[in-house]
Design goal:
TIM Barrel; 5-stranded antiparallel beta sheet; single chain; 18 strands; 2 domains; Immunoglobulin-like; alpha/beta
Length: 365
């Protein structure tokens, strides 16, 4: 991992720091102390960047106007909801949010990421109402505060203010292709869970395997994205054994294959990805990485790379893999099977290497 984002405040309004603007906070709980400061210090001491998730929603705040989209009152009839919302004022609530964000940006060192969650503007004819967006959060004022206090911090795209977010944030899915806006690639980060729940859930049976999580990481990077993988501690503040097992497995894979992830992104369109594979590309080192999801028999055929590769090696053990252009009769047969004339063949061991996803590193000429 290169950075971490912690949930400073979620939708229910509980704060992990000693906020001067609410009593619903860690210092008034069994913890009895600010939990953000030691967390930020510990992660920075290990060389990781730090970020804070902050919920725009706050179902416990006396000025937060509840609606029929999300929250504990969403199922009330409109007339009962109107009674519950009497005296509530989103303008005062937006000021409360800015006060808390100022605390987070001035009391915890150089915060690298601010992860706001979330806007939900609806169509005017939605029977549940208009939802909430930039007018409710007073997003322009919020952004001005952030840029004044931490101009180098990066923001997600969820305050409903075009141009304000530094990255898009697809949730619980990986796009089919890299994200593009106005014909240009968009910086994006997929936020996903290990098993369907954002917090720890004792009886959760929907855990994803370590191998599947590794493939998700690879697939994300191959499309120019980044992966924010969620972990939820138990009530004792520990990561459960299943979480630890998966993190260790991902870490073990990264020991030998990290160069195919860090500093990499989507491969240029000129490189044709073989079936059942993903490509990642490091433009600085000119290394192309072939992540093999389904191990083929003896050869990996890659279209368009003949004469363009200096060497190939298996990342797991660093061993070199023979490169071969096809003989004339083989080339004729390959073209009949749909391959192009510049086909490159990489000779593979018959048995798949003992790793979740084998990766072949190609040193490009």
């Amino acid at each position: 991992m290169r950075y971490a984002v912690i949930t400073a405040k979620h939708h229910e309004g509980f704060c992990l720091w000693d906020s001067a603007h609410t009593d619903l906070k860690a210092t008034n709980s069994g913890a009895g102390r600010d939990l953000l400061k030691p967390w930020a210090e510990a992660f920075r001491a290990r060389g990781l960047r730090t970020g804070f998730y902050y919920s725009l929603l706050d179902w416990s705040h006396p000025d937060f106007v509840h609606d029929r989209h999300f929250g504990p009152w969403k199922d009330l009839p409109p007339e009962e909801l109107a009674v519950k919302n009497r005296g509530r004022d989103m303008h005062r609530y937006a000021g409360y949010m800015r006060d808390q964000v100022q605390e987070l940006l001035t009391g915890y060192g150089d915060i690298d990421v601010l992860w706001f969650d979330f806007s939900y503007t609806k169509k005017p004819d939605d029977p549940r109402g208009p939802g909430k967006g930039r007018a409710d959060w007073e997003s322009e004022e919020l952004l001005a505060l952030i840029r004044r206090l931490r101009p180098g911090a990066i923001l997600d795209d969820r305050i409903d203010l075009p141009g304000a977010g530094n990255f898009a944030s697809p949730e619980q899915f990986t796009p089919r292709t890299g994200l593009v806006r106005d014909g240009k690639p968009v910086v994006w980060e997929a936020c996903q869970t290990m098993g369907g729940w954002w917090g720890y859930q004792r009886s959760n049976a929907a855990w994803r395997s370590a191998d599947e999580l590794i493939r998700t990481l690879i697939d994300t990077v191959s499309k120019g994205g980044n992966l924010l993988l969620n972990v939820g501690p138990t009530a004792r503040g520990e990561l459960c054994p299943r979480t630890q097992e998966r993190l260790r497995a991902i870490g073990a894979w990264m020991v030998h294959h990290g160069d195919a992830i860090h500093g990499c992104g989507a491969a240029p369109a000129e490189f044709v990805c073989p079936p059942d594979c993903r490509l990642t590309w490091n433009p600085r080192t000119r290394r192309l990485y072939v992540h093999v999801f389904a191990w083929p028999y003896q050869h990996l055929h890659i279209d368009g790379l003949r004469g363009k590769v200096r060497s190939a090696r298996l990342m797991l053990d660093g061993s070199e893999l023979p490169l071969s252009g096809l003989k004339e009769w083989q080339l004729h047969m390959a073209q009949g099977a749909g391959f192009g004339p510049d086909l490159l063949s990489v000779t593979l061991p018959v048995e798949q290497p003992a790793t979740a996803v084998p990766v072949i590193e190609l040193d490009m000429l």
